[in-house]
Amino acid sequence: MFEQMHPRWQELLVDQRKQLAAISGVLEKDSASVPERNLMLRAFNYPPEHYRVLIVGQDPYPTAQHATGLAFCVPKDTRPLPPTLRNIFKELRDDLGEDQVINADISVWADRGVMLLNRNLSTRSGETGAHVDIGWEDFTGAAIAALQRVHGGNLVAILWGQRARTLIPELTESKVLHSPHPSPLSSYRGFFGSKPFSACNNHLRDLGLEPIDWSC
Q1: 116 three-class SS
Q2: Domain boundaries, the chain
Q3: Catalytic residue status for 59
Q4: What is the pLDDT of residue 103?
Q5: Measured between alpha carbons, how far is 87 from 13 in angstroms, rounded to an integer?
Q6: Rounded-to-integer distance, Cα 212 and Cα 57, Å
Q7: Fold exhibited by the domain 2-206
Q8: Catalytic residue among 15, 30, 59, 213, which?
Q9: How confident is the prediction for the chain on average, in pLDDT?
């Protein structure tokens, strides 16, 4: 799995090689793991320098047809959309306008500089949170620390959900926005109305960085 990452990430996370090997060993025994193994490290396809925004979720959608390796992202033309993604789009429209969502494919955000990273990069089909204890959070924690070091404070982090918000003490050099998770179970507790997209762009402008085009 280690070699699936961009060489720059391999350089920064060389001390995580054994951790990924251990995680891989666990996954080999779980044939129901999602997403597909070749997608689990998809968020690391670009080098850390490419990203200026980090969005952190909890774990993948627990269905093979939805899990893509990018947090909250589903394959293009997926219908119906998962409720969590529908809520993200509702907030995006309320925040930035009705014309923001056309194709419902947020993988373009990654292309534009947004790292879509879950705290845990796999789960079991049909079961949310099945792999929270196999070592993913150690790995993603190391990756986020490396990302922050690379950017030296010029990073905006958007943390959605309880597991993501455990990172707040680790992101003291970054601009941090956080709220409850956009799932139907928690979205009305503060995700709706949080305006993360405009707030993120305001922070980027304050840092002298290009805002994100959130349309999709």
Answers
A1: strand
A2: 2-206
A3: yes
A4: 85
A5: 34
A6: 19
A7: Uracil-DNA Glycosylase, subunit E (3.40.470)
A8: 59
A9: 95
Phi-psi region of 152 (alpha: psi -120 to 50; beta: other; left: phi over 0): left
Quote the CA–CA distance of 117 and 4 in Å, as a whole number. 15
Closest by alpha carbon to 144, among 22, 21, 57?
Answer: 57
Q: Are 35 and 68 in contact (CB under 8 A)?
A: yes
Question: What is the helix (H) or strand (E) element at residue 156, kind and residue range?
Answer: strand 156-160
Collapsed DSSP state (helix, strand, coil) of residue 65:
coil
- pTM of the shown model: 0.96
pLDDT recorded at residue 91:
97
What is the per-residue pLDDT across 116-143, written as a single tens digit (0 to 9) for each?
A: 999 999 999 999 899 999 999 999 999 9
At residue 81, the pLDDT reads 94
Is the pLDDT assigned to residue 163 strictly greater than 90?
Answer: no
Q: How many residues does the chain have?
A: 216
Task: Judge whether 159 and 168 are in contact, CB under 8 Å.
Answer: yes
Asked if 103 and 41 count as a contact pair (C-beta separation under 8 A), the reply is: no
Query: Within its chain, how far is the Cα of 70 from the centroid?
Result: 6
